[in-house]
Structures are given as structure tokens and as C-alpha cells.
Design a protein that fits this description.
The protein is α/β, with parallel strands linked by helices. The chain has helices spanning 3-14, 20-28, 44-48, 61-72, 88-95, 134-146, 162-167, 169-174, 188-193, 216-223, 238-249, and strands at 33-34, 39-40, 54-55, 78-81, 100-103, 108-111, 123-128, 150-154, 177-182, 200-204, 230-232.
């Protein structure tokens, strides 16, 4: 749907020719921006509440910039995940330094069309077992903030020194939902799940020695978690965990 068609639809609504529900349904079907090598879902935010997110891995700098421009032109902030640091200067040159927020540890960038308003009804707590898990944990933190949530961060509290985790228990229990990130044997979500009465999204990471099999050991450990209320996303998927946490944390009507 282009601007003219949208204005015509709204004018018909103003004249009482279509209902508000019909307008909502039409907006929910609004289409995409077609490019030779990408089809940008420009109105995912209407359907899902959050705009399309760009997966940066494997894309050229030019592709990332053009996709970002298509989303910005339609009023959306743009989140890019798994983006190599050498592609960030191109975004800064095209959109301006004040518009580009980069977390190098997370490998994530937000190109701002507008400031993010806090819309989550509670806090999300991102918990990481070790410092080596920080790239995935920070991807979760960055994503959740871009989606309008207030975040608490509890890092380097793995089960090898569980007293470190217990020291932060008040922060854990104050959260509305938790994202728990761990590699190695992936035991941390089980421990946290026995301490809090909130949903937990567990993220296995590829951190570990050979028998961790690139995160498979942590994934299987989390899938076999004995604590209730723990769900699991894919290996190194901090973004997916944060997105799910943001859905849990938002108002039902949002």
C-alpha cells in the first residue's frame, strides 16, 4: 500500500464508509518494499507490534544500508543483528552518527528513526553464566531495549560459583521475565528456574571445550531442564530470546 492508497482508505473511514475494524485489517495486510535482492516487510509492526529486524550475517554493507533505508522511510527504527563491525561505518556515513547506536560486543546496531519509548510493563533481566557468554547476552540486552523494555543485567554468575548468583537474587526476583544465557554444560537456567516465579527463556551458547560440541551440550542440558517454566531457544540466539521476552513483557493490547 502506498501513501495515496492509505490516504484514500483513511478518507473513506472519515466519511463512515468503512469500519475501524476494516481499516485495521487492511493495515495488517499492507505489503512490502520490493528490491532486486530483498523484499522488505515494511508493515510487520502493524501485524506483530515490532518492525522487521535485519539479520546482518552474510549481507553486504550495501544490502544492509538499502534495507535499513526502506524501513526508515516508513517510520520504523531499524535493528540489525549479527553485523560485522566493518559494516557500521557505512551506516554512519549514510544515516548520521547520531542515528546509529552500535554495540560491538553484541554485534548489533540500531538505526534510529525516533527515540525508543519504554512500552514493557515490567523489567527483563538478562543473566549470563560467564564473561565469554557476553556477546550473546548483550545481543539479548540490546534487542530488548530496542523493543522498548527496561533491562537489568546480571553477568558472570555461573554455577561454578553459585554464591555470586544468590547475591543478585533480589534483582532476579524483581524481573517480569528472565533471559538466561550459558554455555559449557548449560546448567544455569535450571538453577535460576528453582529460585524465581517468572518465565525463563534459556539461551545455550557455543562457548565451551570440545565435548560441548559448539553449544549442543548446553542446548540438550537446557532442553532437559528439571525446573518448570523454562523454555529454550536455539544456540547463540540472544535475539530470539529477547524478542520472546519482549512479547511476554508487553501489554496484551499492544
Amino acid at each position: 500500500m502506498d501513501r495515496i492508497a492509505l490516504e484514500q482508505l483513511l478518507e473513506r473511514f472519515r466519511r463512515g464508509e468503512v469500519t475501524l475494524e476494516a481499516v485495521r485489517e487492511e493495515l495488517a495486510r499492507m505489503p512490502f518494499h520490493w528490491m532486486a535482492d530483498a523484499v522488505v516487510d515494511t508493515h510487520r509492526g502493524v501485524r506483530l507490534g515490532f518492525p522487521e529486524v535485519v539479520f546482518g550475517l552474510g549481507k553486504t554493507a550495501d544490502q544492509v544500508e538499502r534495507i535499513a533505508a526502506a524501513l526508515l522511510d516508513r517510520g520504523s527504527n531499524v535493528l540489525v543483528t549479527k553485523l560485522a563491525a566493518d559494516k557500521v561505518p557505512g551506516l554512519v556515513a549514510r544515516f548520521g552518527a547520531s542515528a546509529v547506536v552500535h554495540d560491538e560486543v553484541a554485534g548489533a546496531v540500531m538505526v534510529k528513526h525516533h527515540d525508543v519509548e519504554v512500552s514493557g510493563r515490567g523489567r527483563i533481566c538478562v543473566v549470563a553464566a560467564g564473561t565469554s557468554d557476553l556477546p550473546v547476552a548483550r545481543e539479548a540486552t540490546f534487542t530488548a531495549r530496542c523493543l522498548g523494555n527496561e533491562i537489568d543485567e546480571v553477568y558472570d554468575v555461573g554455577v561454578a560459583g553459585v554464591h555470586r548468583l544468590l547475591h543478585r537474587l533480589p534483582v532476579l526476583r524483581a524481573a517480569n521475565v528472565l533471559v538466561v544465557v550459558a554455555g559449557m554444560e548449560g546448567a544455569l537456567p535450571s538453577v535460576v528456574g528453582g529460585l524465581v516465579s517468572r518465565p525463563i527463556i534459556a539461551v545455550p551458547t557455543s562457548v565451551g571445550y570440545g565435548a560441548s560440541f559448539g553449544g549442543l551440550a548446553a542446548l540438550l542440558g537446557m532442553l532437559n531442564c528439571c525446573a518448570p517454566g523454562v523454555t529454550v531457544v536455539n544456540i547463540d540466539n540472544g535475539f530470539g530470546a529477547a524478542y520472546a521476552a519482549a512479547l511476554i513483557n508487553r501489554d496484551a493490547g499492544a
